[in-house]
Design brief:
mainly alpha; Arp2/3 complex 21 kDa subunit ARPC3; two-stranded antiparallel sheet; 7 helices; 4% strand; globular
Amino acid sequence: MKTKFSVPQLVILGLMTAILLLMAYTPLGYLNIGPLAITFNVIPVAVCAITLGPVGGAIAGGVFGLTSFLQCIGVGGTSAMGVILFGINPFFAFIQRFIPRVLDGFLLGYIFRIVRRFSNVSLACMVTGFCSAFLNTVFFMGALILLFGRTEYMQGLIGGKNVILFVCGFVGINAVFEMLASTVITGAVGLALYKARFVPATRPRNALS
């Protein structure tokens, strides 16, 4: 796996990291609705995965995850759910906020490479953007259920419902909006970076670039 970045790639990584921090510490990154928040931070993670591969995606995901965890203690905003989870178990709260975002970014690097082999770069970027929001939701909620599902707090939220139905109802329109925004914006940004030669020019097998 390639772990050394060129100067232009380091510029992209630095820029995306700065954008992640800006979004984390300003209202730009989150739209809080009830206990959850619509987050746009999945977009810089997807862009890093497209331009830098799995390692770059994982690094950006780690930055996202760290800022998300810090919100549990009121740094860079406050997450209502995060505060409660931190009070229940700080270590599990860190795992639940950090690991899913690192895993998301890491896998996105491979998703882009695989889709790019069979399609044009625009579609590959859009699929990567969609998967960024989709996997973030799946991993985040999966870790939430796995680590805190038996707690009184989560049992109160679940209210005896089927876990899958609870997750679908809980994330609801938030997840749909995240996926739509991430698909469109990542597709546009990724295509622009490809034209600027920041995205590796891997030749697709069955489609023209």
